[in-house]
Amino acid sequence: MKKYILKKYLVLLLVVGFIPSIASASNIYLETARNTVSVGDTFIVSVKVDTEKTSINTVEGDIVFDSNDKNLVVNDFSLAKSIFSLWPRTPSLSKDGNTISFVGGVPGGFNLDKTILFNIIVEADKEGTIKISPKNMAVYANDGKGTRVPINISGLDIKVSPKSESNASVNEWNSLVSLDKKNPEDFTIVIGKDNTLFEGRKFAFFTAVDNQSGISYYEVSEDGRAPVRSGSMYVLQNQDENSTPSLKVTAYDKAGNKTVSIYKNPGFAIFGFSLNFFIIIIIVVIVWIFYKKIKKNKIKKNVHSNQ
C-alpha cells in the first residue's frame, strides 16, 4: 500500500504543473562549508540543484557513499530550507549505511539555482577521504508530461585528518540546532478519504515547515486520547461518517520547538468533506490516469529495447 501511495504522489508532482520548460541540463551537486575535517567532527552536507532556466517539479535518486573506506556515520537528515513541500519518500538510509534514497517535489514547479533539496548530517569516523556522489538521479520538468530533464551531477570529496588533541571536535549540527529558537510555521490539517488509500478509511494530512533545524516529528491526539507519533498522514481511529474529528497535531522541530494545530470543521462541506478534499480527489483521479499512461509508455519502450 505504501509503495502504491508513493507512486501516486510522484505522478501528482509530475502533472500538477503546466509551465513549459526549456530542454537544458539541470545540475545536481553536493556542498559543504569545509572540505577538510578532523576525526570526530560533525558537519552538514547539502544536496542542491541548479535548474539552469528549466522549470522542474520533482527530483528522485540516491546519494551514495564510497563503501571501500567506511569512515563516516550518517547521524540525521534535515529538510530545513528545502524547496520541496511534498515528500513521497523522505531521505532514508539503507541498512548498510552507504546509500540515501529520496523522492521530493513541489506543485507548480520552480526555476532557481543553488536550491537546497535536503541536508545530511555526517560524522567523520576515521582518517581518509569521504567520497559522496549522486547516483540514479532523475529530474522531471514541470510541463504536465513528466518529461525527464537532462542532468549533470557532481560528487564531493572531503578529507578527514587525524583528531587534534589540542582542539575539541567541531559539531556544526549541534551549533545550528542550539541557535534555533523559533517554532515551526503554522500549518493546516485536512481530513480526507479515498478508496485507494488506507483501505478506504478516513485520514488526516498535514505538513509543517521549519527553515532552521527542520521538522523532526508530529504528535497526534484524537478525541482527547494520549498523543501518538505520526508522519504527515494519520489514519483516524474514529471512522464514524457522521462525527466531526477532534484532532490536535503538534509539529516538533529538531531543536524541540513546537507548533500546535487544531482541526476545525470546514464552514462549507459536501457530505461532511471540505471543498479542498474534493479538489484533492479530482487531482488524484487525473494523476492515476497519467500514471497508467506513463507506465504503459515505459512498457512499450522496454519491449522495443528488447527486440
What does this structure look like?
There is one protein chain. With 307 residues, the chain is α+β, with helices and mostly antiparallel strands. It has two domains: 2-179, Immunoglobulin-like; 190-288, Immunoglobulin-like (Sandwich). The protein contains three helices and 21 strands. The protein has helices at 2-15, 172-179, 275-306; strands at residues 26-32, 36-38, 42-50, 56-65, 72-78, 86-93, 99-110, 115-124, 128-141, 148-149, 151-154, 156-161, 190-192, 203-205, 215-222, 228-230, 233-235, 247-253, 258-262, 269-270, 273-274. The strands form five sheets. Strands 2, 4, 6, 7, 9, 10 and 12 form a seven-stranded mixed β-sheet that branches. A five-stranded mixed β-sheet has the order 5-8-3-1-11, with no helix packed on it. Strand 18 (247-253) and strand 19 form a beta hairpin. It is globular, with a radius of gyration of 21 Å. The model is unreliable at 1-6, 15-22 and 284-291 (pLDDT under 50).
| Count of distinct strands | 21
Major β-sheet profile: 7 strands, mixed
**Rg calc:** 21 Å
Q: Strand content of the residues, in percent?
A: 35-45%
- Report the CATH architecture of the largest domain: Sandwich
Please report the distance between the alpha carbons of the first and last residues: 33 Å
Brief synopsis:
The protein is of the alpha+beta class and 307 residues long. It has helices spanning 2-15, 172-179, 275-306; strands at residues 26-32, 36-38, 42-50, 56-65, 72-78, 86-93, 99-110, 115-124, 128-141, 148-149, 151-154, 156-161, 190-192, 203-205, 215-222, 228-230, 233-235, 247-253, 258-262, 269-270, 273-274. It folds into 2 domains: 2-179, Immunoglobulin-like, CATH 2.60.40.680; 190-288, Immunoglobulin-like (Sandwich), CATH 2.60.40.
